[in-house]
Design the sequence.
């Protein structure tokens, strides 16, 4: 039970997402760009893999497979570019994107509802 509580707290609330969308859309776009860029190179990535990668970063867990690891690497590269962003804000951005993935997808294997939602906005 304690583990579930820790995970819930680490994954944040919707009010964080509202704040991030209003004040830090550039950071959210950077994170989403990294995700879609990797997806364009590897069509095996689905919404569930994206969610697992974001959870891995937020919860400081090890990647579960190579697809998750490739997304983590892409996110780490964006993190290096965005050195102007503090760690707390970075994690809030990741949580916000994770909430969007969860909102737009049922997270079943092979489903790409979130990817289809965000793809038209990423150039």
Sequence:
């Amino acid at each position: 039970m304690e583990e579930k509580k820790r995970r819930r707290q680490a994954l944040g609330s919707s009010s964080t997402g509202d704040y991030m969308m209003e004040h830090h859309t550039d950071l959210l776009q950077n994170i989403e760009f990294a995700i879609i860029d990797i997806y364009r190179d590897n069509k095996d990535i689905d919404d569930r893999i994206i969610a697992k990668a974001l959870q891995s970063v937020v919860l400081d867990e090890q990647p579960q497979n190579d697809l998750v690891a490739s997304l983590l690497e892409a996110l780490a590269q964006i993190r290096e570019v965005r050195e102007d962003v503090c760690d707390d804000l970075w994690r809030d951005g990741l949580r916000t994107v994770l909430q969007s993935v969860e909102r737009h997808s049922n997270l079943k294997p092979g489903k790409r509802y979130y990817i289809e939602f965000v793809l038209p906005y990423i150039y």
Notes: The chain has one domain: 16-121. Helices lie at 2-11, 14-23, 25-41, 47-58, 66-81, 87-104, 113-118. The radius of gyration is 13 Å.
